[in-house]
Automatic annotation (TrEMBL):
Alphabetical GO biological process terms: hydrogen peroxide catabolic process; response to oxidative stress
InterPro entries: Haem_peroxidase (IPR002016), Haem_peroxidase_sf (IPR010255), Peroxidase_pln (IPR000823), Peroxidases_AS (IPR019794), Peroxidases_heam-ligand_BS (IPR019793), Secretory_peroxidase (IPR033905)
Protein name: Peroxidase
Catalytic activity: 2 a phenolic donor + H2O2 = 2 a phenolic radical donor + 2 H2O
Protein species of origin: Eleusine coracana subsp. coracana
Keywords, ordered alphabetically: Calcium, Disulfide bond, Glycoprotein, Heme, Hydrogen peroxide, Iron, Metal-binding, Oxidoreductase, Peroxidase, Secreted, Signal
The keyword Magnesium is assigned to this record: no
Length: 331
């Protein structure tokens, strides 16, 4: 009976995800299709999946790193892999200089594996999208789902200050978060759904210290705040540094992408102002409660929202280039 129940749950989850994705795939951008490389590079998605899985199995924190890179890439200049470009003599102030992210070397490793089977064919932007999808499957135990591709070109422009105009701040109020997402073609449902990615990953204390000092934010669970204060020193403390903590300090597995995030929001046990703000309106609070109460439905919504996000301002036609190395434009 237990096996039958488990199998039924998996079937229901697949159905929920398929229903959600059928709605969002058409919104991922008219240029994107499932299986774009089926003829030009049939091994592309399997190669990305195999390397991504191996990287995450070796270091479970990398699932969140891939997901965050994809989010940052799409929210700054669109999903064009501009976040991956290194500084150069002609452009010393690139996006990656604006904020500390992890996973750049790992993306280069995936790209090298893809280049070995299909030189000059698969864009870094598509590789990043596939790696984010595969991270959800590995770190979140999602059933595999289609990630439309055809981001035929990688961007050749990467600017430091564009990051501050595109990425939502962890101290944003709800109305500003909704406006930020709307500017990217995403709605409040997408905001709440994609915020679930804060169920894994890490953050520096400086991103939320304002909720701990000089006094504790009253919307934060007091016991949770007290524990954070033992790790995060007050701002300006000599020698205190800026420690890194897990986004999810409640779950037994801080590297799992899960709906546990929504339970944490309801309990006042999340790090960021932006996360706690999801309870500041009846509409988004209802969505938080719904996701907390139905993890399978949230998985379907998350997959669909990830696909939708992956369609932001993609480059097609002759715009940009398919980079040989993800961290540098072709010479």
């Amino acid at each position: 009976m237990a096996v039958a129940t488990c199998n039924l749950a998996v079937v229901l989850l697949v159905v929920l995800m398929a229903t959600a994705l059928s709605t969002e795939t058409s919104m991922a951008g008219p240029s994107l299709v499932n299986g774009f490389y089926s003829s030009s590079c049939p091994q592309a998605e399997a190669t990305v999946r195999n390397v991504t899985e191996a990287i995450i199995r070796k270091d479970p924190t990398m699932g969140a790193a891939f997901m965050r890179l994809f989010f940052h890439d799409c929210f700054v200049r669109g999903c064009d892999a501009s976040i991956l470009l290194d500084p150069s003599s002609s452009n010393p102030s690139v996006e990656k200089k604006a904020i500390a992210l992890r996973g750049y070397d790992a993306v280069n490793t995936i790209k090298s594996a893809v280049e070995a089977v299909c030189p000059g064919t698969v864009s870094c932007a598509d590789i990043l999208a596939f790696a984010a999808r595969d991270s959800a499957v590995v770190s979140g135990t999602f059933p595999t789902f289609a990630m439309p591709s055809g981001r035929r070109r990688d961007g050749v422009v990467s600017r430091f200050f564009d990051v501050f105009q595109g990425i939502p701040s962890p101290v944003m109020q709800l109305k500003d978060l909704v406006s930020n997402f709307a500017a990217k073609g995403l709605n409040a449902d997408d905001l709440v759904t994609l915020s679930g990615a804060h169920s894994f990953g890490q953050a520096h204390c400086s991103f939320f210290n304002g909720r701990l000092y000089p006094t504790v934010d009253p919307t934060m669970n007091a016991t949770y705040a007290a524990a954070l204060r033992t790790v995060c020193p007050p701002p300006g403390t000599d020698g205190g540094g800026d420690p890194v903590v897990s986004n999810n300090r409640v779950s037994s597995d801080p590297n799992a992408l899960s709906s546990r995030f929504y339970d944490n929001v309801l309990a006042g046990k999340v790090l960021f102002v932006s996360d706690q703000q999801l309870l500041s309106s009846n509409d988004t609070a209802d969505k938080v409660a719904s996701n907390a109460g139905d993890p399978a439905a949230w998985m379907g919504r998350f997959a669909a929202a990830l696909v939708k996000m992956g369609g932001i301002q993609v480059l097609t036609g002759t715009n940009g280039q398919v980079r040989k190395y993800c961290n540098a434009i072709n010479s």
